[in-house]
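Researcher: Good morning. I'm working through a list of sequences from a screen, and I'd like to move beyond sequence-only analysis. For each chain I'm collecting a predicted structure so we can compare shapes side by side. This is the next one on the list. No need for commentary yet; just the structure.
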Amino acid sequence: MPPSAAKHARIAVLLPRFSLYGGVEQFGYRLAEGLAGRGYSVDFICSRQEAPAPPGVRVISTGRPPGFRLFKMLCFLVRAERLRAKGAYDLTVGLGKSLRQDLIRMGGGPLKIFRKQSERAVPSGYRRALKTVLRRLSPSNLLILFLERRAFGPESRVIAVSDLTREQLLSAYPALDPDKVAVVYNRPDPARFRPPSPAERSEARRALLRRYAPHLADNPDEYILIGTASTNFRLKGVDRLIRATALLPDNVLLLTAGGRKAASYLDPARALGIERRVVFMGKTEDMPAFYRALDLFVLPTFYDACSNAVLEALASGCRTLSSSADGASFFLDRDAVLEDPADVGELVRRIRLLLGKPPPAGFNPPPGAACGLDAFMDRVECLLEERKSI
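Model: Good morning. Structure tokens for this chain:
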């Protein structure tokens, strides 16, 4: 698009939080910043602003009222739609839940497919049955289903975060036109996530053990460090990974970054006699150093549209194992993809197999795979150009 056209085009980005914390929030921030850098006039419509706006971006906050989740969602939907309609934008990009948008970025799968796959992470019996009933009766989930049915019709334009998400979306909403559903994967920041030198790796291991397992810090190279990262331990299969660790040699340590309610996962580790080999790190600020220290990153997830952690681990030159329920498995060798995350025996076998292989050279997407912010913005510009020609 010629610079003169870009200068006068107005774009709105819709997402409840304007923040630098959280995967979709970071993407939204960088997207607004990148579009402004290309010469567009960018408004970011959110319910709350938690970070300063980059140059060229105007943040419009609708306010975030107190109350239940459903009430907050409804307030943002109504207020954001008023601002969108009043703004008379050339293009609006929806990154979360909104009433209307010209382009939707699908960073997660359709709710009914997510629900079906994620319920497998809950122990069978009454707990799973209760979880299923509560999810189906949840007013917030009913609202999300309404918004999805409204959003995904024959004329909808969608960018999915993985081929897996695209397939699930087309399966759940067959009215969508496949030609209007594109795929653009995330790309890890090469300035932050890169393969370490031997000295950097050694220092990262020593520093990590010194902080989280000081009783092992004197001989960091004697241990095999397996890591995972999650804010939802159950969904990402951390309980299975703990059981797998118990079946591995005594020099294998499991380090978990992120998460909430880690205390309940210490009991199974104690029962298996491996509490000194399982470390819950809590919220971890320096993820590049975490990946540099590991021998293997494992995410036996029951559902993930496209795990950023898997992509970051690959970019950091770390051996990486995930499940076929993760869209990021597109970038992994067949041996590094676990078909059933509930199969602890197979998980152990795959871990042993990968530990015997050399680490990857970094994040190397196959030819033709669209990845990264620039690829996403190119799609935005193509759609804007298409709309201007009508």
